[in-house]
Predict the structure.
Amino acid sequence: MTDRALAVVRAGALTTVQDRGRPGHAHLGVPRSGALDAPAAALVNRLVGNLPGAAVLETTLTGCALRPRCAVTVAVAGAPCPVTVDGRPVSWGAPVGVPAGALLDVGPAGSGVRSYVAVSGGVLVEQVLGSRSTDLLSGLGPPPLCDGAVLALGRPGGRRARVDVAPQPAPPAELVLRVAPGPRADWFTPGAVRTFTSRAYRVSPASNRIGLRMEGPSLERARPGELPSEGMVLGAVQVPPDGRPVVFLADHPTTGGYPVIGVVRPADLPAAAQAVPGTPVRFVAVGAR
Amino acid sequence: MNVLPVGDDALLVEVASGEEAEALHAELLRRRTEGALAAREIVPAARTVLLDGLADRARVAAELAAAEVPPAPPRAGRILEIPVRYDGPDLADVAAHWGVAPREVVRVHTDTEFLVAFCGFAPGFGYLTGLPARYDVPRRDTPRTAVPAGSVALAGPYTGVYPRSSPGGWQLIGTTDAVLWDHTRVPAALLSPGTRVRFVSRGHRGDG
């Protein structure tokens, strides 16, 4: 094994390899996948001098610990968390040098859900349909990290960024999601449509990379039954029979039969990826662009 | 044709039947190949085609609203043959729904030319149409927690083949060794929308 590699000392609750995903294959039933907080993933790549499409690690709440076998530059951003190298605190949101054999510990998220870890050269797992992303719905891409795994690294390309700490949005205390109505708002009673955009919801702990599930008022249907399966987009707010909306995130199914009451603006989805369970959510109706 | 906006840059085009969706899908693919349509995803489904990642949604919506659904192009291209052992645990139940003997289910299924109408559920899982409506069957009351890869199954108007082991509520009529999905193969999916398929019997339950 080459020494351009990274040993996983502590995989954490759920750490996956992510890049910009594999859009363009929905007609084969392949979800787009990719980093949920895409701006944070792009930032850490920029900080270590990687190309924007390099694969990074996406942690979930509890961080991870890694031991590179060669000297690397790393950067951690997204959900704010303590970062240490061999026990010494180092900067979050900035490029950090890690000597060969040192232990990089990405601590639990102090706020937010997902921290992103870029390593100079990028993580070099096998590509599937042009992407290294783990897709938790379909099982494409590498499995989630496990303790003891070893990940190959690419050759570092560019220079690390010269910044102290890059500015980033804080994880949301209240998640405000702008939503364009339709395409199936007419499957709901007028009262349900008003409820959806006026009442408070909370992020459910059952949320995952497939969807941000909501706790809150149930949305009443104006008609029973299921639609014939139809194509689904990122950000679609699907309403299953229990009436509680689900906002589709990157690993969402490509087709579905439950009606979509509205579609969240893509620009609001990175904040959705950082909303911890219990975060208050408001859906705000906007016109289509 | 009903053209519904979806989010900021997608359109859901709804038509009256599966045949119209097939024809519309073929027409939209033709336009994209010709460079007349810029869309990241063209996703056919039961009665709709989704256009996602449109560069100029307003123009596409106006063009579609003014258009008629084109007639379905003649089906061309080779027919993919999928060998099947008709040994599924629900073959007798399907025969009972149809009111025929299991042997007759095999005859009808192998005499039918299928078309992959759309994909979904899992990478490489196709929804195949072709059986007459009188052969529709319901899903099982209780879905199985694990359906083996290669299971050939029926639900509603569709036939499908499970690309990998997964939970499922379809009626299992047989098994194939064909590899439905292999990401190291080009193309990875054996079945994609528009593929013509015929199932070929390699025997069924009760055969010597």
Observations:
- Chain A has two domains: 5-152, 175-285.
- Chain A has a mean pLDDT of 95.
- Chain A touches chain B at residues 23-30, 128-129, 138-140, 180, 182-183, 228-233, 235-236, 253-256, 260, 263-266, 288-289 (CB under 8 Å).
